[in-house]
Write a structure and sequence with these properties.
The protein is an alpha+beta fold. The chain has two domains: about 35 residues; about 90 residues, RNA Polymerase Alpha Subunit, Chain A, domain 2 (Beta Complex). It is built from three helices and eight strands. A five-stranded mixed β-sheet has the order 6-4-1-3-7. Strands 2-8-5 form a three-stranded antiparallel β-sheet, with no helix packed on it. The termini are far apart.
């Protein structure tokens, strides 16, 4: 069976070709990985408490936000353009309630891609009791 001339050129000396491709991918991934940086900023946290209940435990006032991405881009992000909030308005009984931290930001901030935001901690727990009860 006679193979096409182009297929013969591809198959001829295939081990060095495969090794070259693997090496090129390793170099690309190494460069991409080494240029990824992280930045941590502390921003104010807006907490929405339920009506008729009072918080018995500490209510957080700020949260750490981890910004990960390309080193050249993460320091261009203005922390004031990121807003963090936590909503406990769903609470309808006494006890401990857990709610996630929600991050909001301008969408055009991340058009270039490769930027990730995460809050630390990702959720808070607060003990609630009926207002005025001992």
């Amino acid at each position: 069976m006679k193979l096409n001339k182009h297929v013969q050129n591809i198959v001829y000396n295939w081990p060095p070709k495969v090794l070259s491709l693997v090496f090129a991918l390793c170099v690309y991934l190494f460069i991409q990985y080494t240029t990824i940086g992280a930045r941590v900023v502390t921003i104010p946290l807006e907490v929405m408490l339920p009506s008729g209940y009072e918080a018995e435990s500490l209510v957080p006032s700020s949260v750490e936000v981890h910004i990960q991405g390309n080193d050249d881009l993460i320091y261009l992000i203005n922390p004031n353009s990121i807003e963090a909030s936590i909503d406990f308005s769903f609470v309808q009984q006494e006890g401990i309630a857990t709610a996630p931290v929600l991050l909001s930001y301008e969408q055009n901030m991340f058009e270039s891609g490769g930027i990730a935001l995460s809050a630390n901690p990702t959720q808070f727990r607060i003990l609630f009791s009926v207002e005025g009860a001992l």
